[in-house]
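Much of our argument rests on the idea that a fold can be written as discrete symbols. The amino acid sequence and the backbone structure tokens for this protein are reproduced below:

___
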Amino acid sequence: MLAGAVGCGGSGPPAAEAPRPRASATPSAPPTATTGGIDPSQGPLRLRFLGNVDFPPRTAADGRAFGGISALAYRPSTHTLFALSDAHEKTGPLRIYELKVDLEAFDVRMKHRFGLSPGDREMAFDPNRYDPEGLALSPLGELVITSEGDQQVEPREGPRFDAYQRTGHGFTLLKQVPLPTWVAPTPEGPLERGMRGNKGPEALTAAPSFIFVGFEQALVQDGEVATPEAGTDVRLLRYGLDLTLQGAHHYRTDPSPPGDRSSLGLTELAALDDDHLLALERGTFHDGEGYRNRVRIYLVDLSTAANVLERPSLRDHQPVPKTLLLDLGTIAHRLFPTHALDNFEALALVRDDRGRPTHLIVASDDNFSSHQRTCFILFAIEGTPTGAPMEEMEED
């Protein structure tokens, strides 16, 4: 069994095939300690660090490599996380893990591993060219996944947005949700429109009334990739719960750090409500000594956002407002005193019985590398996106 331990104590002995995650050297502290969360004076919504679980490289589960975590979705009825692995043939078949989560002790344990089936011929995809990146559980109970496709071989394989249903020991494709035609890359030759290679619908989240799909970097027609001088302009597609496209919004990332490898982009979204999202931006850069990751979490306000669905380009357009909540680099020295900040790219919200977000889980993608790890971090969410007391939020 794949098992976890709270990230502020000692590690247990490794199992024969599924080693117990190693705890970080985070100093022991009561839950109320300030360990990198935002000070109350800096905004109405705050993230307070509670703990972390760290799985060493090459951890295995059920005979397969455990890792490649690109997205999370929390299922409150069972206190479990669905964790999407962006596995390819070299690391085994497409799969989703169901993980049991103990929020009080913050422990993560393997419960099940499910395969993803491409379905019938009409909708079927090529598993070798399917790159799953986004995952969400809709309020209607559907499991939805986005794929970036494959642009390394022509004709280029475009992105997908798919809904799945549970069948036996896995999930089977139920229907393919239409994406706008202008997000698909030019099939052959020079890339003149659509998503750039491996920079497609990376972010996916379900709000009470909508499902949002976010692209990692700008479509060709919308602008350039992030540079140290300017961020990249990406689209957030807004679908109804019936999976019909209703609109789109304009999000702009930060400029990339010096030494960036054109990698900074939007990697995940988590919907606090219909008008407010958490956005995770991540980029890899070289600081002169080695490659490092920069990971930041923002609060995004869509309450007055313009609908850019019919806009042919995002150039010379104003993006939605965002506020920095947390730079994970500010707590990295406590989480990983002997390691660089990992490749964090997944978010999941935990809600109480009234549907209010109470916790945030952040996870890293180890890329099935011997030099990277899978890590889960737990934060408490304090305050509200607008600063209004909870009673006022409930009355609205």
